[in-house]
């Protein structure tokens, strides 16, 4: 006779927990507290992240040792390739963000391109310095409006000779305006890409150079607009006794090229400071090479200026010479920071 299998005892179901009580009473205050304190907690996490970014040093590993180890071990070699791929992916992200910001800046400057072209037309009327002084005394839209009318009338005298010339001129002006706004952001993205491989002190000193880059580039653009173009345009128009039938393309190409490249040339102190931070140049080297620097500045001035007259070349050479002196001072400051304990010019990028 077969034995009957005993069925396992059924587990008694626990009664469902009743909502309410102390936990239910405290749920709403906890939620309110979490919502109210979320901005402060987010700011604190952001502060800790920035502090860690600016104070923590990367692992000091020689690039030569890393490559030699990767050649000895297949696993290390694949790890090096994986790290290289991560760097490429990070570079792609930084370039994408820079492109997005540049596209947004083009949208804004394209929206105001007609007014920008009117202001760029003021050197044709000889009212550039008057406009700058009036705007300095009274920075209002009512001050700008008459000059916009005058500049618009001046550029309407320019004659197009190709169907797409007006569109090309419009885009050129929009691109220059976008560059003024987007170049500092692009420099910030470059910094964020290389910063993880730098020592903390170098990282902090280079971070201070980002607003300096924006100020120098904008100063160069304004210098070209206020000092160079008001001298160069009348010289080119009136010096040789010919009639003028300038096109929008020729005039705005001249104006935007001069403004952009003078803005780039004004970045010289920052470039020298970065090179001195990494120990590639020093003040003594710059002082001993002043003769070569003078020749280089003269060649650069000849390439930038639209005319060959000595007045316009002197207008470029004088500020460039002053900027070279500022570069020597910046190299001295970078050298002193480099000599402080714990300062390493540039850690290897990990």
Q: Give the rounded overall mean pLDDT.
A: 79
| Helix fraction bin | over 70%
Task: Please provide the ordered H/E string of secondary-structure elements.
Answer: HHHHHHHHHHHHHHH
- SS content category: mainly alpha
As a percent range, the share of strand residues is: under 5%
Low-confidence spans: 1-5, 342-350
The count of β-strands is 0
Count the DSSP helices: 15
From the alpha-carbon coordinates, what is the Rg to the nearest angstrom?
31 Å
User: Globular, elongated, flat, extended or rod-shaped: what is the shape?
Assistant: globular
Q: Report the span from N to C terminus.
A: 78 Å
The main β sheet shows up as:
none
3D structure, described in words:
With 350 residues, the protein is mainly α. The chain has a domain of 231 residues. The protein is 76% helix and 0% strand. The chain has 15 helices and no strands. It starts with 20 loop residues before the first helix and ends in an 11-residue tail after the last helix.
Summary tags:
single chain, about 350 residues, about 0% strand, disordered N terminus
What order do the helices and strands come in, and which of them pair?
Layout: H1 21-55, H2 63-72, H3 74-111, H4 113-120, H5 122-125, H6 128-137, H7 141-155, H8 165-194, H9 200-207, H10 209-238, H11 248-265, H12 268-277, H13 283-288, H14 290-304, H15 310-339
Helix pairs in contact: 2-3, 3-8, 4-7, 4-8, 8-10, 8-11, 10-11, 10-15, 12-15, 14-15
């Amino acid at each position: 006779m077969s034995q009957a299998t005993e069925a396992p005892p059924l587990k008694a179901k626990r009664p469902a927990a009743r909502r309410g009580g102390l936990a239910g009473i405290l749920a709403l205050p906890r939620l309110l507290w979490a919502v109210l304190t979320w901005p402060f907690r987010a700011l604190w996490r952001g502060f800790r992240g920035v502090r860690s970014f600016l104070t923590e040093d990367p692992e000091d590993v020689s690039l030569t040792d890393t490559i030699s180890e990767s050649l000895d071990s297949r696993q290390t070699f694949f790890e090096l390739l994986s790290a290289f791929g991560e760097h490429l992916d990070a570079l792609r992200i930084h370039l994408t963000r820079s492109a997005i910001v540049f596209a947004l800046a083009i949208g804004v400057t394209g929206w105001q391109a007609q007014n920008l072209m009117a202001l760029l037309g003021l050197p044709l009327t000889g009212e550039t310095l008057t406009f700058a002084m009036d705007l300095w005394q009274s920075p209002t839209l009512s001050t700008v409006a008459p000059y916009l009318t005058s500049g618009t009338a001046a550029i309407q005298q320019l004659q197009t000779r190709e169907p797409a010339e007006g569109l090309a001129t419009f885009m050129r002006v929009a691109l220059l305006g976008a560059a003024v706004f987007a170049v500092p952001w692009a420099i910030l993205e470059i910094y964020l890409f290389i910063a993880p491989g730098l020592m903390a002190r170098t990282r902090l000193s280079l971070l201070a150079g980002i607003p300096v880059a924006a100020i120098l580039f904008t100063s160069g653009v304004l210098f070209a607009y206020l000092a160079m173009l008001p001298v160069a345009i009348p010289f080119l128009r009136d010096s040789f006794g010919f009639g003028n039938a300038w096109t929008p393309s020729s005039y705005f190409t001249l104006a935007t090229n001069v403004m952009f490249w003078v803005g780039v040339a004004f970045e010289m102190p920052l470039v020298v400071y970065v090179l001195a931070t990494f120990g590639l140049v020093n003040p003594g080297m710059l002082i001993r090479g002043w003769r070569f620097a003078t020749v280089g500045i003269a060649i650069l001035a000849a390439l930038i200026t639209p005319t060959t007259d000595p007045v316009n070349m002197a207008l470029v050479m004088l500020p460039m010479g002053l900027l070279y002196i500022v570069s020597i001072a910046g190299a001295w400051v970078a050298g002193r920071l480099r000599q402080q304990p714990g300062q390493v010019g540039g850690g290897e990028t990990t």
